[in-house]
Design a protein that fits this description.
This protein is α/β, with parallel strands linked by helices and about 190 residues long. It has eight helices and six strands. The protein has helices at about 5-10, 55-60, 65-75, 85-95, 105-120, 130-135, 140-155, 160-175; strands at about 15-20, 30-40, 45-50, 100-105, 130, 185. Strands 1-2-3-6 form a four-stranded mixed β-sheet, with helices on both faces. Strands 4-5 form a two-stranded parallel ribbon. A hairpin with a 7-residue loop joins strand 2 (about 30-40) and strand 3 (about 45-50). The longest helix is centred in the C-terminal third of the chain and has 15 residues, at about 160-175. The protein is globular and about 50 Å long.
């Protein structure tokens, strides 16, 4: 029988959740914001980080931009010039994850945007993306139901850090853990 205690043990600690916002959902879309949360142990606070991503030149030349997507995430194209370049984003994500997988709920879209980011970078990612739903199967049935209820009650905000935090807080609920307000991850 799987219980809350065995669910905690079954989790691949530390835990990381990641989310991307993108220029569109069309072919040729590219990542414009990334957010990541980490939870080192059940006793520690959840921590988060995010940044806008300055587009690689080829993204601006050949990429797809959707005004519909812009109206959903609220990020104007001009704001991206103040973002961080792809290599620095990968460098930061590598430092935060330390090579552990980061779990997401965007499936093929998140995988495509992570690959697009990596291909524009001079740095190789040391982390892989994992499936958030698959991670949920490590919970007991009651815990998994708490995750689903949290996800229903806390719809995505379509900002990368908020949505990565939403996933992590859902896991915390599933594990029966207090999560509180997330703290910022300091990047050196």
């Amino acid at each position: 029988m799987v219980t809350e205690a065995t669910s905690r043990v079954a989790m691949p600690w530390p835990l990381f959740t990641i989310d991307f916002e993108a220029s569109s959902l069309e072919p040729g879309s590219y990542p414009i914001e990334v957010g990541i949360c980490r939870w080192l142990t059940p006793e520690r606070p959840i921590e988060g980080w995010s940044t806008l991503i300055k587009p690689a030149a080829v993204w601006n030349e050949q990429g797809s931009w959707s005004r519909t997507s812009q109206s959903i995430h609220g990020i104007a194209r001009e704001e991206l010039e103040h973002g961080v370049g792809p290599s620095d984003v990968i460098r930061a994500l590598n430092a935060i994850t330390g090579g552990h997988p980061a779990f997401c709920d965007g499936g093929e879209h998140d995988l495509r945007w992570a690959r697009t980011l990596a291909s524009a970078s001079e740095i190789r990612p040391v982390f892989a993306l994992g499936d958030f739903d698959h991670l949920g199967t490590r919970l007991d049935q009651l815990g998994y139901m708490r995750v689903l209820r949290w996800m229903d009650r806390a719809p995505p905000r379509h900002r990368a850090r908020d949505d990565a935090e939403r996933l992590m807080k859902a896991l915390a609920r599933g594990l029966g853990a207090e999560h509180g307000t997330s703290q910022d991850i300091a990047i050196d």
